[in-house]
Amino acid sequence: MSVRRGLVRLDGARRPSPGWLAVPLAIIVLVTVIDINTPPTIHLGPLLIAAPAITASFAGPALTGAIGALAVVAQIVIAVLHGGLTTPNHVAQIAALLVISVLVTLFRYVRDRHQRRLTQVQSVAVAAQQVLLRPLPERIGPLRIAFSYIAAEAEAQIGGDLYAAVPFPGATRLVVGDVRGKGLSAIEEAAVLIGAFRGSAYRHLSLPGIVAHLGNSVYWNNAHLGDGNPASEESFVTALVMDVHHDEPFLTMVNCGHPPPLLLHDDKVQALEVPDPALPLGLSPADESEYDVTTFGFEPGDLLLLYTDGVIEARNRERAFYPLLERVASWNETDPASLVRHLHDDLLRYAGGNLDDDVAIIAVAVPQPGRGTGGGTMAPARPRRGR
């Protein structure tokens, strides 16, 4: 499952519903009929400007101009039937209505052109996101995977959160991370890390080896391509790198300052805390001896939830943080897609639709034979450290 914010569309402006179009037409008819049947001293013609003004709120420039022209024609009819077309008052009303209708149509045209350009930029952003953050497959070997990505800036479609998965002998290797900061520099660092992660897949590095490789890639990029920017030199990436083994009841993990994943087992939720988390990536040159590997049990029927700190740092109106562990425990979901859907909708509802940080959510499960993703029977996961 993938959940993303969509692009701005102009279809509503180009194809207004008949119900909306009836409003300006009704205004023109009513104003014309009432003005014709009132004494000549009462002038309702200026109200006709409401017709093109309302049309511009839901229709394109062509229809806005057409409604404006119709309003001018109605004003001319009123003038002919109320004292003559050449009276100073009617000439002034017709001229004013014509000028304002032209201006409203012009503003609608400029707005449509701006929206088209924005849509093009967004389409490029989505394409870039598809290259940088490729959608995770629903299945990798026996694993079932669901994910969601929500950019804090809806127009941006992309941010500093990252995730990727590559095949590894007998396992699937996953990375989820969060680049410090926002904007283009954060996107660049995310691209560097994901490129290094995917590019090293064929080398079959050990877990500490791939983490050191990622850390050195980020550090080298900041040190040599930062152009002396202090923000680049001080940047780093919190990351979680793990191997989920296909034929063994465990997973191995290195945590570099990232929020711990949650393991859903036997109607209980457990945070997989490592005894000694490593420093975030990119702060200094890295060596694989610096990274400890922690092993956790993970059997068929269990469900693993990976996420970025945008989830747990989301706040409601009372400025309270999102209670992720309590929410996940109360749902008792064993299907990855259902869990991600629940979390995505509940998070946006909790934050009132406004997130201060990007959010990436990944759920991984190994179905039990003949039972889909039902509950497991293993004992609670206990960390075991190693190299």
Main attributes?
387 residues, alpha+beta, Phosphatase 2c, domain 1, 2 domains, six-stranded antiparallel β-sheet, 12 strands, disordered N terminus, phosphatase activity, PPM-type-like_dom_sf, PPM-type_phosphatase-like_dom
What is the element layout, followed by pairings?
Elements: H1 11-14, H2 18-36, H3 50-55, H4 61-81, H5 88-132, E1 139-140, E2 143-150, E3 161-168, E4 171-179, H6 183-199, H7 207-225, H8 230-233, E5 237-245, E6 250-256, E7 262-265, E8 268-271, E9 293-297, E10 303-307, H9 309-312, H10 324-331, H11 336-350, E11 359-365, E12 384-386
Structure characterization notes:
It is a single chain. The protein has 387 residues and is of the alpha+beta class. The protein has two domains: 11-124, no CATH class; 133-386, PPM-type phosphatase domain (Phosphatase 2c, domain 1). It is built from eleven helices and twelve strands. The chain has helices spanning 11-14, 18-36, 50-55, 61-81, 88-132, 183-199, 207-225, 230-233, 309-312, 324-331, 336-350; strands spanning 139-140, 143-150, 161-168, 171-179, 237-245, 250-256, 262-265, 268-271, 293-297, 303-307, 359-365, 384-386. Strands 1-2-11-10-7-8 form a six-stranded antiparallel beta sheet. Strand 3 and strand 4 form a beta hairpin. Helix 6 packs antiparallel against helix 7. The protein is elongated, with a radius of gyration of 30 Å. The two termini are 34 Å apart. This is Protein phosphatase. The chain crosses the membrane at residues 20-36, 66-85, 91-110.
